[in-house]
Automatic annotation (TrEMBL):
PANTHER family: PREFOLDIN SUBUNIT 5 (PTHR12674). GO terms for biological process: protein folding; RNA polymerase I assembly; RNA polymerase II core complex assembly; RNA polymerase III assembly. The keyword Ribonucleoprotein does not apply. GO terms for cellular component: cytoplasm; prefoldin complex. This is Prefoldin subunit 5. The keyword Magnesium does not apply. It comes from the Eukaryota. It comes from Cercospora berteroae. GO terms for molecular function: unfolded protein binding. Pfam families: Prefoldin (PF02996).
Length: 157
């Protein structure tokens, strides 16, 4: 595995080695794309939390009946006891009581932080995808120049 930032002269690699590099890059791009989707999902959940605070708590009257989620698919009936304070999941199963404005600010900070991480990850994914295209092109040229069957050269992919 090449270290980050290490450059390899692709023309010096055999078709089999290029296939291995291609497979490694494919795996990395797939993993990074999954991570990107997970960050986007988390960011949307934080946005949903803000919407829930604005629409569900801030504008509601105390004692209003509602459904409380125990899991993603199990809800129990409850009543809203306090419209000024909410419980905020700060991670790893810990909840902190915050006023509505502080909770919104907390979630907005999380959204902004995830946005920065998403931007960085986009740049990395684009870079890896460009590297993958270059490797595929060099592999294609090697296969054509060597007279090999594409299936034999890419057998490791």
């Amino acid at each position: 595995m090449a270290g980050q930032g290490q450059q390899i002269d692709l023309a010096q690699l055999s078709a089999q080695q290029l296939s291995q590099v291609k497979k490694q890059l494919d795996d990395e791009v797939q993993h990074l794309t999954n991570s990107y989707q997970n960050l986007r999902t988390a960011q949307q959940k934080f946005r949903d939390c803000i919407v829930s605070i604005k629409n569900g708590v801030a504008s509601s009257a105390e004692g209003k009946p509602l459904l409380v989620p125990l899991t993603s698919s199990l809800y129990v009936p409850g009543t809203l006891a306090d419209t000024e304070k909410v419980l905020v999941d700060v991670g790893t199963g810990f909840y902190v009581e915050k006023d509505v404005a502080s909770a919104q600010k907390f979630y907005e900070g999380k959204i902004e932080e995830l946005g920065k991480n998403i931007k960085e990850l986009e740049n990395i994914v684009n870079s890896k995808a460009n590297n993958l295209r270059v490797v595929e092109e060099v592999l294609r040229q090697k296969v054509l120049a060597g007279g090999q069957q594409p299936g034999q050269a890419a057998a490791g992919a």
